[in-house]
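Entry for the shared binder. Reason: the reviewer on the internal report wants the predicted structure included alongside the sequence.
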Amino acid sequence: MRKRAGRVHLSFIRPMEPELVEQPPNGDEWSHEVKFDGYRTQVVKDAEGIRFYTKTGIDWTAKYRPLANEVLAIECDSFIIEGEMIVTNAAGISDFHALRSAITRRPQDLYLAAFDLLHLNGRDLRDTALKDRREILQALIPPGSHIQFSEALPGTGDAIYHLACEANLEGIVSKRLDSVYRSGNTMNWRKVKCFTEQEMEIIGFKRETGKPAMVLMAHKGRYMGGAFVTFKADKRQALWDSVKGKVGAAPPKGLANEKAEWLRPGLVGRVKFLKGEDKLRHASLRDFREE
């Protein structure tokens, strides 16, 4: 017998995770959304009140307290809504680097980009098709609040991905319209990230036991961060041979505490990294050369 909605007690559900792929799928059976650069968040409302959970099920209700009143404006007795907690920059794009300070200093600037509905008024919706879950969710969210519906973008997967990268977005998430919700990784949801490549100076490296090797990069005298070395054995050895003759430089300003070997000038690397970032994220070394 179904419980009365107002007395429902709900628990955190382990998220459904998109697989990372190189190209987005095409076809009428897929929808495509912006991949927001923030924290995956699950919002629960039940007989115990409102709670916000991180991707791993940690209760962050206290951090997101200003959004609780926005959630109360959703006129339902109980629900579980999934979304991405974000803060936007002046261009209206989600800004991951600004998110942490927003949580602690200006939580009133946070937005939840809501994209899925797992429970509603005592009913488990996980066996309902994604298309239907999202239609219900969109109808629930009141206009003008900090809870906003993540709209599907019109067009083919390839075209949407191209436009997302041109706009310096992190990427897109593609989802089968008929997919049911199952915790864990699935190819029914797929994410494609936007990357760019650029030549930068290799100014140092890190080689620690049990960790992937990494080169440290700078561009026009500015430290940019690290890029993983994923070469095959022969090319990797050629890199270390080039590095040996340049070891011994002083640490750049502000980086003396880094556990790294620093290099004299003369080695340049081509780096692939996440687009639209001030520093390297998800970066890998694609090639290198002597200047």
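Summary line for the report: The chain has two domains: 5-193, 195-290.
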